[in-house]
Amino acid sequence: MARRFPNDVTTLGGFPAPTQECYDSLAAILDDAKATGIFYDSPPQPPDGWAILVGAPLFQMILENGKAGAASPSRESVPEFIELTAADSPEMLALAQLTKPGPFGLRTRELGTYLGIRQGGQLVAMAGERLRVPGFTEISAVCTHPDHTGHGYAAALMGELARRIQARGEVAFLHVRGDNTRAISLYEHLGYRKRVLLHFAVVRKPSEEAAA
């Protein structure tokens, strides 16, 4: 009833509904990874023994058809985009840990295309593809080093990814914290609209001692 990604790809998991059966199924597959991130339709209320380590309301935003990159900076105004590879993973992880765009691991880039911008040899901005359902691809891990903000890097990277997603006949979507008004304003400017308010939580299964 439950699934999760390998922990070094991402800590995300999921199940059809927050029932006791589904939580039991999730607990059975967590083994050494005792916590995972779940998207909920309403504020989570896990069973006794489960703990919510962190959580927040998230807007799921979807890109209106035909607007990919319409309001993003031109390619001429930003440095060259590079397609990130396994060799870039340590730097990608370091940038994600610094800027905290959401769950990110050494193998997250395997989920899809990740693009980056380098300045002076340093990876200063990136964005990529994460979750997929038929016809839709999520843009995720949008982050810029604090010393390099204000140049439109995030918008430019998102615009390029959205163009590639639409070229495949798919629709781009993303998730953003409900209180991140600055990011929401940017995404709306880029053509995204709020689709639904979800609730994200990192939940930890009961300890073996408690279960016993």
Overview in brief:
The protein has 212 residues and is α+β, with helices and mostly antiparallel strands. It has two domains: 3-58 and 199-211, no CATH class; 60-196, Gcn5-related N-acetyltransferase (GNAT) (Aminopeptidase, 3-Layer(aba) Sandwich). It has helices at residues 20-30, 89-99, 153-167, 181-189, 208-211; strands at residues 3-4, 13-14, 35-40, 51-63, 82-83, 114-119, 122-133, 136-144, 171-177, 192-204.
Structural description of this entry:
The chain is built from 5 helices and 10 strands. 24% of the residues lie in helices and 34% in strands. The relative contact order is 0.24. By secondary structure, it is of the alpha+beta class. It has helices at 20-30, 89-99, 153-167, 181-189, 208-211, and strands spanning 3-4, 13-14, 35-40, 51-63, 82-83, 114-119, 122-133, 136-144, 171-177, 192-204. Strand 6 (114-119) and strand 7 (122-133) form a beta hairpin. The chain has 2 domains: 3-58 and 199-211, no CATH class; 60-196, Aminopeptidase (3-Layer(aba) Sandwich), CATH 3.40.630. It is globular and about 55 Å long.
Jot down its keywords.
212 residues; Aminopeptidase; alpha+beta; 24% helix; 5 helices; 10 strands; eight-stranded mixed β-sheet; 34% strand; two-stranded antiparallel sheet
